[in-house]
Design a protein that fits this description.
The chain is of the alpha/beta class. The chain folds into three domains: 95 residues, NAD(P)-binding Rossmann-like Domain (Rossmann fold, 3-Layer(aba) Sandwich), CATH 3.40.50; 203 residues, UDP-N-acetylmuramoyl-L-alanine:D-glutamate ligase, CATH 3.40.1190.10; 148 residues, Mur ligase, C-terminal domain (Protein-Tyrosine Phosphatase, Chain A, Alpha-Beta Complex). It is 33% helix and 21% strand. A seven-stranded mixed beta sheet has the order 11-10-9-6-8-7-21, with helices on both faces. It has a six-stranded mixed beta sheet with strand order 15-16-20-17-18-19, sandwiched between helices. The longest helix has 16 residues.
C-alpha cells in the first residue's frame, strides 16, 4: 500500500511510540499534505501520550480506548508493531472492514519498483541472531564502499528514513513485521531466514501462528532471492516457487567446518578470532555472505572485514571484569534456546547464569534437560514469588538437578538480589551471565533498561553500553 492510497480515507494511528511518531510524520508531517476526512487523523494512545501528541498535531482526534467499535470507525489503522492484530477488538474491527497495517508496509509500498521489487532491500528475520546478522550485513556492505541503511526492528523505524536514499537496505524484521512486508504488495530483493524457535506466543496466540507469521516474509512476500538456513528444519522444508532459493550452512554454499569458513570446498578464512561471540553468531556470518552474493557482490573479498565489526549491546556483551568476575550482558535473550546458546559460549568457564522474566508460556523442559549434560556452576532464577514471572516455574523444573548433578540452584526476587547471589556463588572467580530467556516486561520497560541495570549493579557505566553502532545510513 502506498501512502497516497490513504488520501481521503478515515485513517487512525494505534500507538504513539517511536513507530507511531514515524507514521505520523509520514502521513501528516511537513510536505506530506493532509490525510483522512477534513485533514484529520485519529490516534489511539494512552492519556499521557495524548498530551505529547497534541503538541505535535492539534488536529489529531484522540481516541481514549481502542474498542472494536471505535477501531471499526476507521478504514485503515496504522498500528505499532507491538500491538497484535489478533487482539479481540482488532479481529472484530477487521471483520467489519477495517484494514490493519504497519509502518513497514507503508515503507515497502513506497519503495517498490515497477516490477514490485524493492531494489537493494535485504530483509533479515529469525528467532535469534537477527540483529547481529543485520548489523554485520550493513557493516560488510559499507566496507565494500556501498551507501547502506541499517534500519527496522533493530532500533530505527523504516518510516524515519522514508525519504532518504541508500544503495542497499539492511532491514531487521521481527515476527511482528514480516507480515507487513507481505501486506505491502512489494517484494524484497533478498530475504534471509536464520532460524525458528518458539517465541512471542502472547502476541501470536500460538506457536503455529508464530511460525506462519514469520514465514510470510518468504511465502507471501515472495522475495526475488530467499537465503535460508539449511540447518533449520522448518526453513529447510519450505517450498518457494516464486523465489530463487540459496542455502547457507550447507556444504555446497557458505558454511563452517569447525571455525573454518568455507564457500563450497574453498577455504576462505578462520573465524575463531572474529568479534562474533558464539558459534551461532559465526554461523550467521555465512547467512550474511550468502545475502551479499544474492545482491550480486563479491562476498569472499568482504569476509575478512568482519574482523572490524563492533558487536551490538545486550547481546553476549562482555562488560568487563570486576573483583575477579567477568560480567556478560545478554539481556536480549528472551527464549530458553537463546540462554542455551549463551551457555555454549562459556561452557569451559565457571558460570553463574541468571534466568527468568515475563512469562509468555514458553516451555523450559528442553532447557532443564540440557542442564543434565552441561550444568553450570550455579543458576539463579529471578522473579521468585512474583505473579506473571517465570522464575518459580524454571526453579521447579531445575530442582531435581540439585541432587542429580549437584547444581547450585538459587532463587532471587529480582535482578539486584540475583547479582548479589551470583557474586557469592562464584566466590570471586568466574562469569556472571545475564541471559534471562524471557522478556523484561513487568520489571523493566525493555531489555535495554534491564541490561543497563545489570551493568550498574556490576559496577559499570550503563550509559556507555547501549548505543547501537552503525544505525542509520552511511
Amino acid at each position: 500500500m502506498r501512502i497516497s492510497e490513504l488520501d481521503g480515507r478515515r485513517v487512525a494511528l494505534w500507538g504513539w511510540g517511536r513507530e507511531g511518531r514515524a507514521a505520523w510524520r509520514a502521513l501528516r508531517g511537513p510536505g506530506t499534505g493532509d490525510r483522512g476526512p477534513d485533514g484529520m487523523v485519529g490516534l489511539f494512545c494512552s492519556a499521557s501520550e495524548a498530551v505529547e501528541a497534541r503538541e505535535f498535531d492539534p488536529g489529531l482526534v484522540i481516541e481514549a480506548e481502542a474498542t472494536a467499535e471505535r477501531l471499526a470507525a476507521y478504514e485503515v489503522v496504522v498500528k505499532s508493531p507491538g500491538i497484535s492484530p489478533y487482539k479481540a477488538e482488532a479481529v472484530a474491527a477487521a471483520a467489519r472492514g477495517t484494514r490493519f497495517i504497519g509502518g513497514t508496509a507503508l515503507w515497502f509500498g513506497e519503495r517498490a519498483g515497477a516490477d514490485g521489487v524493492v531494489p537493494g532491500a535485504a530483509c533479515v528475520t529469525g528467532t535469534k541472531g537477527k540483529s547481529t546478522t543485520t548489523a554485520l550485513l550493513a557493516h560488510l556492505l559499507r566496507a565494500g564502499g556501498h551507501r547502506t541503511a541499517l534500519a527496522g526492528n533493530i532500533g530505527l523505524p523504516l518510516l524515519e528514513v522514508l525519504h532518504d536514499q541508500a544503495e542497499y537496505w539492511a532491514i531487521e524484521l521481527s515476527s511482528y513485521q514480516t507480515g507487513d512486508v507481505a501486506d505491502s504488495g512489494a517484494r524484497p530483493q533478498v530475504a534471509v531466514g536464520l532460524n525458528i524457535f518458539p517465541e512471542h506466543l502472547d502476541w501470536h496466540g500460538s506457536h503455529e501462528r508464530y511460525v506462519a507469521d514469520k514465514l510470510r516474509l518468504f511465502t507471501d512476500a515472495r522475495p526475488r532471492i530467499a537465503v535460508l538456513n539449511a540447518g533449520d528444519p522448518i526453513l529447510a522444508s519450505l517450498q518457494l516457487p516464486d523465489s530463487e532459493v540459496r542455502w547457507f550452512n550447507r556444504e555446497d554454499g557458505w558454511h563452517l567446518r569447525g571455525d573454518a569458513l568455507h564457500r563450497g570446498e574453498a577455504f576462505i578464512m578462520d573465524t575463531a578470532a572474529l568479534p562474533l561471540p558464539g558459534r551461532h553468531n559465526r554461523g550467521n556470518l555465512c547467512a550474511v555472505l550468502a545475502a551479499i552474493e544474492a545482491l550480486g557482490l563479491d562476498a569472499a573479498s568482504l569476509a575478512p572485514r568482519a574482523a572490524d565489526f563492533r558487536p551490538l549491546p545486550h547481546r553476549l556483551q562482555v562488560l568487563g571484569t570486576r573483583d575477579g568476575l567477568t560480567w556478560v550482558n545478554d539481556s536480549i535473550s528472551t527464549t530458553p534456546h537463546a540462554s542455551l546458546a549463551a551457555l555454549d559460549v562459556y561452557c569451559r568457564e565457571r558460570v553463574a547464569l541468571l534466568v527468568g522474566g515475563h512469562d509468555r508460556g514458553l516451555p523450559w523442559d528442553d532447557f532443564a534437560a540440557a542442564m543434565r549434560q552441561r550444568c553450570p556452576e550455579a543458576i539463579v532464577t529471578m522473579g521468585h514469588g512474583r505473579p506473571g514471572q517465570t522464575g518459580d516455574r524454571i526453579h521447579a523444573l531445575l530442582a531435581p538437578l540439585v541432587d542429580e548433578c549437584g547444581l547450585a540452584l538459587h532463587a532471587a526476587e529480582d535482578l539486584e538480589a540475583a547479582v548479589s547471589t551470583a557474586r557469592m556463588a562464584l566466590g570471586g572467580h568466574g562469569v556472571v551471565l545475564l541471559s534471562p530467556g524471557a522478556p523484561s516486561f513487568g520489571a523493566y520497560r525493555d531489555y535495554t533498561e534491564r541490561g543497563r541495570h545489570f551493568a550498574a549493579l556490576a559496577g559499570f557505566d550503563p550509559a556507555a553500553i547501549s548505543a547501537i553502532p552503525g544505525l542509520g545510513i552511511a
